Structures are given as structure tokens and as C-alpha cells.
Amino acid sequence: MIPLLHIALLVLFVILIYAIIGLELFCGKLHSTWYRGSRNRTAGTKRSHTLWYGRVSFQMRAIGRFNGSIAGPNNGITNFDNFGLAMLTVFQCVSLEGWTDVMYWVGDFTVNDAVGREWPWIYFVTLVILGSFFVLNLVLGVLSGEFSKEREKARARGLFQKFREKQQLEEDLKGIQNFISCHFSLVD
Questions:
Q1: Whole-angstrom Cα distance, residue 155 to residue 111?
Q2: Highest mean pLDDT among 17-26, 40-49, 113-122
Q3: Sign of the four-CA dihedral 43, 47, 52, 56
Q4: Average pLDDT in the 38-66 region?
């Protein structure tokens, strides 16, 4: 049981480290990105906006003021704005569920941004290699080893139980033989 706790702490450590790095690099990026399914296409001012989607930009003019908030992908759950949601986003990427979408959403900003266009793919590719392929395979290896240990313990318990039952039967048989021999010796 202890190796499973150690592996859980390792997975948590990897998620924490990548959440902190993602928080520093991509904080607020997913709220200013146009994504598929987005209903909010303006940001609230009356000037024109350039919205980036991949390598294609769209010039859009705001018609009026936007009174709501732009939630972001997955109704605002997928983001790097606070530590908890950053950990959830990193876990989503480690599980390989939509990590490419998150990488493209984060990378949809202009070239003049201070972060640059290289960091998103470096971050996400190392996250997938280290988090998914290495750490999750380590988890599966430890689970397999623990299962083998428990199966061996159960088999040993079963062998001991069989030995104990055989020993009990032999003792009972000796007792019955002693009883019969004593009874027949009294009858004679």
C-alpha cells in the first residue's frame, strides 16, 4: 500500500509543478481566445478587434458594449487563471483528453506577446511525455506489482489453509482410530 501512496504523491507533484508553470505562462490567455462554440465574439469596446484562431486572424467590429463575461473554453473550467483550475487543466492534459485543443487555445495569441509562440508546444509536449507516458506507466507498473504481491499472499494463505485442513483431518483420523482401537480392545 505504501508504494501506491508514493506514486500518488509523485503524480500530485508533477501536476503541481506543471500547474505552477502554466499559471505563470498562460494566466488569462484562455479568456481572450476565440474558440469553437464561442458565442461571445466581442470584448466590449467600440473599436475593431483582431481575433486569432490558429494562424488565421479575423477582423471584427464590436456593435455594442458587452455586458457579460467571456467564460472561456468548457464554460470557463479549462484555464490557467487560478491554481485549482490550472491543476484541473493539467490533469486533463495528463489524461490525454483534449490536450491538443488546450495547446491550440493557449497558443492563439499574437506573435508580439511576451510569452512567445514556442512555449505552449514546449510546455504541452513535455507535459504529455513526462506526465502521461512516464508517470502513468509508472503508476500502472506499481499497480501491477502490488496486485502480484497480493495475489501471491492470497495463494500462500490458500496453501496454508489447505495444509491446516489436511493436518486437522489427520488429527481427527488419529483420534477416531484411537477411539476405535480402545473400544475394540475393551470389547475383547
A1: 62
A2: 17-26
A3: positive
A4: 50
* pLDDT attached to residue 21: 92
- Looking at the structure of the chain, the number of domains it has is 1
Query: Does some domain include residue 65?
Result: yes
Q: Is the dihedral of CA 28, 33, 36, 39 positive or negative?
A: positive
pLDDT in tens, 87-137: 999 999 999 888 888 888 887 654 345 556 677 888 888 999 998 888 888
What amino acid occupies position 19? A
Judge whether 83 and 124 are in contact, CB under 8 Å.
Answer: no
Q: Which residues are annotated as a binding site?
A: 97
- For residues 4 and 143, is the Cβ–Cβ distance under 8 A? yes
Question: Which of 149, 138, 141, 146 is closest to 9 using CA atoms?
Answer: 138
Asked, for residue 36, whether it belongs to a domain, the answer is: yes
The answer to whether residues 31 and 81 touch, using CB atoms and an 8 Å cutoff, is yes
**Side chain identity at 110, as an amino acid letter?**
T
Q: What are phi and psi of 63, to 5 degrees?
A: -85, -40
Q: What is the pTM of this model?
A: 0.60
**Distance from C-alpha of 9 to C-alpha of 2, rounded to nearest angstrom:** 11
Q: Which residues are annotated as a binding site for Ca(2+)?
A: 97
Domain region containing 41: 2-144
